[in-house]
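Example 3.2
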Amino acid sequence: MCLIVFDWRPDATEGALFTLAANRDEFFRRTAEPMHWWSEVPTLLAGRDLVGGGTWLGMTRDGRFAALTNYRAPREMRADAPTRGTLVSAWLTEPRTTPLDYLRRVARDGEIYNGFNLIVGDWTRRELGWYCNRSSAPPALLEAGTHGISNAVLDTPWPKLVRKRSELAARLAADSNAPLASLVEMMRDPQLARDDELPATGITLERERALSAAFIDTPDYGTRGTTALRVTVRGEAISVEVTERSDDNGSHRIARPGHYEREYAFDVTRTL
């Protein structure tokens, strides 16, 4: 993923516990499967990177969640680094631990990976944690609020992050049960930032402009899919709704502009 905005309400007793809208940006040549229940792990709902084998965002029937963005530092990229997507799938498939314990374990070997942000959560524990291997901050659990991650550390005020985080907060203030389709549309925004707002991340100005949009569309790289997710609590019950719009028509090939939609809903089964 390259832009994630989310609202986290760990003290909720009725209504939305977690609401997320996210864009996955990737090179078009990199093949991937869209969101689906994995045949070898039937409790895991996620897309799959067919090159590295991991995923960028996923969740499980027992209430675990994870998502990842790359950290933009082109001069630090190593071709021999392990794939980052397995950090998501490992949390979702390995024996259960706490989000903070898992992130601390990841952090012990964090330097072997290219730059990333990783958020992992356990909705049954009401815990959501964040770690970035290019930040001096240690892994930490997140406080309640509306947050965003792009290709820098949590809540770095890049224009598209600030804009979409504010839009999400405003939509939820008006309607905490806003339709997921409206959150998908919110993220598919091609507006570019002004040149004086652009970060300097080591790429060309032309590339910085193109990547400043929430919805990126260049000849070789762009937003491959948009995910909207809501986790709702009613007393002890937890339910999940998720919508994905992607450019994959089932062939694992690009079919722009990406109007293939998938919807899922399930109740969390507690296994604490």
